[in-house]
Amino acid sequence: MKRIATAFAFLTLSFAASAQKFDYNVNFDYLFRNYEYDGSMELYHKSYTLHAARLTPEAGLLVIQNDRVFHRVRFGIDIYKDMGARIPLKQHFKEFIFYYNAEVQMIKGRRLEAVAGCFPRRFAEGDYEGPFFRDDLLFTDPNLEGAFVKYSSPRLYAEFGLDWNDRFDASKFERFQMMSSGCWNFAGPFSLCWTGLFYHFNCAPASPRVIDNHTLELSFKWAPRTSLDDLSISAGGLLSFQRARYVESVPQIPMGIYSRQHLSKWGLHIDNRIYAGGDLMPYYGRSFDGVDYTADLYLADTAFHTMRPGFSWTDCLRVRYEPRLTKFLTVRAELSFSFGEPYPELGSPVFRGWRQTVALRLDLNALRPHPKTARTRERRYLFDGFVL
Fold it and tell me: What pTM does this model have?
């Protein structure tokens, strides 16, 4: 493995020196996040501290076909340190990343981008956090393995991707996800948005146990022009289709209402998300062939596991300060509060717990050459990009 990496690095440098431009990126993430859920008996989330840092250097070729078309080939390595963990040095090198990336600037402000290989999750600009992925997973699993395509125009943004999580063999599962997100600005400050995740999970290699776990969010977004840096309110529905094949013939179809309210000014953000409806994790805690696959089947925030067969609600309020320092350096301090319908028979009150976060991100990718596509005001309302 070391010889292959060394050979690839020398090949990349030789091509860059002879014909094309040398391309690189350095991404550094530091995160301290403390979860405190003792007050709700840790029914919805475990109390622990995530304290880690990650360094991801990349190098490769930048091929400029013309002033509207760019190609990239990059190779890098994901170096991860869990603070306080005493492990051998080689275990800090988590994963090689290598990918092909192309960007095409088209007429009338349209842009097309594609990436394939093992690449950083930051290429996905959709808001998947919460009902699709929990926040700690987005940090501990920062890369996607597959392909991603993004299209943008002054009124439309859409992305679609494939992430292959695990390959089937005698000891591993077969898991893959197809994800999509986007928004269509159809009138003034109003947009129609969607986020979806198609999740195929083969949970038992020794016998045919396949579970479908698909979730779709459809919402209307209102984002008027104001003196604030950002003001947006979205409201719509969450629909999930889940079925344990060969075990149950009737699928589980939980659904509910989902809304997000966000405003920001001078680096201060207030972000609130509320869900009201059925339990989005009906197979939580269940086992197949005597093995509990909950951790692999449900990757979303466990607040959406309401533990009730009927109607319930949950709410997450975040207050963060994120000053604008430079376009490649971001710092953040955040408090997140979780609420939900009380469950007195299990000892869970309305206030379930809270999280304290301090984060820093250095991403030199913002300085790399790319088509200078003007992002519309509507697009800024849609996505915050990758969130620590």
Answer: 0.86
Backbone angles phi, psi at 378, to 5 degrees: -65, -40
Judge whether residue 11 has pLDDT over 70.
no
Among residues of the chain, what percentage have pLDDT more than 70?
85
Euclidean distance between CA atoms 158 and 113, whole angstroms:
11
Bridge partner residues of 175 (DSSP): 166, 201
> pLDDT band at residue 348, thresholds of 50, 70 and 90?
confident
Tell the burial category of 113 from Cβ atoms under 10 Å away from its Cβ (0-12, 13-18, 19+).
buried
Q: Which residues touch 350 (CB under 8 Å, ≥6 apart)? A: 339, 340, 341, 342
State how far the Cα of 340 lies from the Cα of 353, in Å rounded to an integer.
10
b/e 255-273 (16+ beta carbons within 10 angstroms → b):
ebebbbbbbbeeeebebbb
Q: What digits encode the pLDDT tens for the residues 22-56?
A: 899 999 999 999 999 998 888 888 999 999 999 99
Which 8-state DSSP code applies to residue 163? E
Task: Dump pLDDT digits (tens) for 185-239.
Answer: 999 999 999 999 999 888 655 555 788 999 999 999 999 999 999 999 999 999 9
Beta bridge partners of 118: 98, 145
Query: For residues 132 and 114, is the Cβ–Cβ distance under 8 A?
Result: no
Main-chain dihedrals φ then ψ at residue 8, nearest 5 degrees: -65, -40
Contact between residue 59 and residue 74 where contact means Cβ atoms under 8 Å apart:
yes
3-state secondary structure of 364: helix
Q: Which two tokens stand for residue 187?
A: 């009138």
Bridge partner residues of 351 (DSSP): 339
